[in-house]
Write a structure and sequence with these properties.
Layout: E1 4-9, H1 24-30, E2 41-45, E3 51-54, H2 60-65, E4 80-84, H3 90-93, E5 105-109, H4 111-118, E6 131-135, E7 142-145, E8 148-154, E9 178-184, E10 187-192, H5 200-206, E11 211-215, H6 223-226, H7 248-251, E12 259-263, H8 277-284, E13 287-289, E14 295-296
Parallel strand pairs: 3-4, 4-5, 5-6, 10-11, 11-12, 12-13
Antiparallel strand pairs: 1-2, 1-14, 2-3, 7-8, 8-9, 9-10
Length: 298
């Protein structure tokens, strides 16, 4: 038995190319000059047989079709034990509507995230007779799938865009944005696709990990502005950047982590271009840029 992960989707909301974006990356992806990427999701297993999906992206149908390990093994039999969502963002919950086809699995989330889903009746399409919704308390280990244990913990973030009010706090610590610690066969891995900053207690939790999948949304905080596709900064969206004195590369520099992998990259992020200087800098700092279909083992 051993931990194994497959990146189902490496991009942030909208994917690469994003349907209405003509930025450099989206144009190159449409032309087939750089790899296209689907929206953020990770599949994990502790035994190579039973799988869990972390975040149900809008692209989950295509992602599952492209993952033989998650193909049906019978008429209505599937090696999918559970789905876990780390926040209520559209790009992490919309795929639940695709999973409405009377397929049994357990849907794990914090009470705060389950409340977001419950208040939207469209998610009742997940028939309660076959999909069990289980509420998970923070910092409490639980079986995510056979031979795979998970623990949810708070990370700095904000409420989903569609729940924002007049005042937005982007570094909330609570149930609305969580990271996932995964343990199987002596391996400990972390999945944190959204994070506004790396406080000391979170850095201490990650120090010594075998694998960390971490928020790589933007290369620089003003990237949306400088590329001309938006007005918000990364900090306003609840994401720390890869570069800069307060970015992820600098924050992780002293942590002893065997494998560091960026996921959830926005379509504007230059690290999505294999030949970019930014990607070379990230890789020289010990980071891997996640890609759709990438298999990760200890």
């Amino acid at each position: 038995m051993a931990f194994r992960a497959r990146i189902l989707g490496a991009a942030a909301g909208g994917g690469l190319p994003q349907w209405n974006c003509g930025c450099t990356n989206c144009t190159l992806a449409r032309q087939g000059k750089i790899p296209a990427q689907s929206q953020s999701s990770l599949a994990v297993t502790g035994n190579g047989i039973d799988w869990a999906v972390l975040n149900a992206s809008p692209d989950i149908r295509t992602q599952l079709i492209g993952t033989p390990a998650l193909h049906p093994t019978g008429q209505r039999e599937l090696p999918l034990a559970s789905v876990l969502v780390t926040n209520g963002d559209i790009d992490h919950v919309a795929g639940l509507l695709t999973l409405r086809e009377m397929q049994p699995f357990t849907l794990f989330a914090t009470d705060g995230i389950h409340d977001v889903l419950t208040r939207n009746p469209i998610f009742d399409a997940l028939n309660a007779d076959v999909v069990t919704r289980q509420t998970i308390a923070l910092d409490t280990p639980f079986p995510l799938a056979p031979d795979l244990t998970a623990t949810l913990f708070p990370v700095p973030g904000k409420v989903p865009l569609y729940l924002e009010g007049d005042t937005v706090q982007t570094d909330l610590m609570g149930e609305q944005t969580v990271g996932v610690e995964l343990r199987a066969g002596g391996t400990n891995a972390f999945y944190i696709p959204g994070c506004a900053l790396l406080p000391s207690q979170l850095a201490a939790r990650l120090d010594g990990a075998d694998i960390v999948f971490f928020d790589g949304t933007l290369w620089r905080d003003d990237e949306m502005q400088t590329t001309g596709v938006g007005t918000k900064t990364g900090k306003r969206m609840g994401h720390m950047s890869i570069s800069g004195t307060d970015g992820a590369v600098e924050a992780f520099k002293t942590l002893k982590i065997k494998r560091k992998i960026f996921v959830h990259m926005n379509n504007t992020n230059p690290v999505l271009r294999p030949d970019s200087a930014e990607r070379q800098l990230a890789e020289a700092s010990g980071w891997t840029i996640g890609q759709d279909g990438m298999e990760v083992r200890p």
